[in-house]
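LAB NOTEBOOK - FOLDING QUEUE
OPERATOR: T.R.
BATCH SIZE: 2
PURPOSE: Compare the predicted structure-token outputs for two unrelated chains run back to back under identical settings.
PRIORITY: normal
REVIEWER: second-year student, initials M.K.

ITEM 1
FIELD SEQUENCE / FIELD STRUCTURE:
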Amino acid sequence: MKTQMRTLLLLLASCLPLLAGDANTDKPRMLVLTDMGADPDDEQSLVRLLLYANEIDVEGLVATTSCWQQNAIRPDFIHTILDAYEKVQPNLLLHDGGYPTADFLRARVKHGAPKYGMTGVGEGMDTEGSEWIIRMLERDDDRPLWISVWGGANTLAQALHKLRATRPAAELDRLVAKLRVYTISDQDDSGAWMRREFPGLFYIVTPGDDYGQATWIAINNVHEGIDNTTVGNRWLAEHIQQGHGPLGAVYPDVAWGVEGDTPAFLGLIPNGLNVPDRPDWGGWGGRYELRTPPSESIGDGSSIVVPEPETRPIWTNASDTWTPYLPNEYKRAVKRVERSFTGNQVTLWRWRDDFQNDFAARMDWTVKPYAEANHPPVPRLNHPDHITVASGRSFTLDAYGSSDPDGDSIGYLWFHYPEAGTYEKVVSTGGAENVDRFHVTAPEVTEEVTLHFILRVTDKGTPALSRYKRVVVTVTP
């Protein structure tokens, strides 16, 4: 009866009109620039994104060029995937009432210029894509507008070029301040131009042409010493492509690397860990620091995108050290492995199994009724998520009462995330970290520091799903 009532409520919710002005102010706003057709990974990323269209306001899907596809745009690839989404959207609504109609999304498919980089930027170069960015940016909505760049960025550059030419300086600054850009490296020469010409523009990127140094590539790199199963072709065939209806059927095989563009929106998914405006806090899309990268770190110009020295701080590669946990056969349910990993790509792959399992579960939502699919647990804190304690004092983090909507058993894991705070040493506790109440002793300090503790609650459904709570602890002398 409870399942039937939930289904009825969700179906009623789906009947409400999804109008452009009916934005859910709790959701992040995002507009995608994609060189769809240049590499199958854009198609893969769009399939995943549509499964989170209930969590993110998708305000534009703009077909663009890149260094890999310089003179053509392929919006037809986007429409093919939206056609598949249309067939599964009614079933997705059984799991959450926030999924927009395919027609709502089709109206947001726009064309960029079929020109490469800065050759498509300047007087008379406006496109429906650049005009749509301006329209969305000027809309009466206080939320930031995230531009998720999966290919070349010149459509955004053209929008900024026009705004600078046609708006007063104060208005331009206001609009630029609303923008948040996450681009998958530089795939044309417009990114460096924007960072130079608009110093107030919030920009996440590993600049230059050396993809091997990029944080985003950790989504598909095979790393020695960890389990890489969830990015393998066999796993993708079983959990995404085959037996998962029309949307799974349009998820293409890997050509170069699986879903290289997906990190550009993973950090927007509301999972309790991600804090989009704080890239330095870390999340599913990786962790980034605001700094000016040295010229020698941005590549040697061996690709078509010639690296340029950065002229000001940008959000770019940061490094984590992570010692993974594994299930333990006896006694304490989890144990740390003997090897630690360090590097900027660690900031992303440390969460990879969690977001891949989440993807697989949502693919199940496209074909299964609510009762036969898994849904994420609901962590609960019994205290504020920002607390202050005195140096050397003990305190308790309390998640008692966390739950799971499917009635699954749940497991807890608490850990200190030193790189996200200002206290660089790992705070060790000596107690069990896999319990609902976690006891910690604050370090002895002579100046105020912050500690970030992450609660990861994971259910025992199939696939196992995780959600988080972040507690920021200020320790005073």
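ITEM 2
FIELD SEQUENCE / FIELD STRUCTURE:
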Amino acid sequence: MIQPSSSPSSAAALPAEASDAVQAALGAEHAAVWVYGLVSAFLPAGLDAPVAAGMAAHRARRDATERFLAAAGSTPRPAEPAYLPPDPVTDQASALALLVTAEADTTVAWRAVLERTDSAELRAAALEALTTAAVRAARWRKAAGQSPVTPALPGQP
């Protein structure tokens, strides 16, 4: 279904509630890609590889989600021209905090997809997206020295 490494060949039309949730998850992926681009200017070279990996993962998930929506007969919503972080990004600490926020936001968005579809295939894809974002969030929390490294229920708003 929405696997970053593949594109669905066909998909049934989604019920409105599920389609809206997938569109919101796509929006979270767009925002995460933007965030990774922003924070790269504030992080040391030692974090270049995980930043590049995170950006690549969100781009792949974004692209796969766009293909899925198009195959389901929906027009994927485009990215915003820019996003407003909850706090200014001015140094390494604020950049890491924004990465945690972006990953947490994607877990919340993909959990909403889980809650709004009965499709086993879509649920599996949403669970994978939630899980991988939660793992990245835990890594960024650890890098930022935050504790606990992960919430008890990732994706819970």
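REVIEWER COMMENT (ITEM 2): Confidence is low (pLDDT under 50) at residues 5-10.
FOLLOW-UP: none requested
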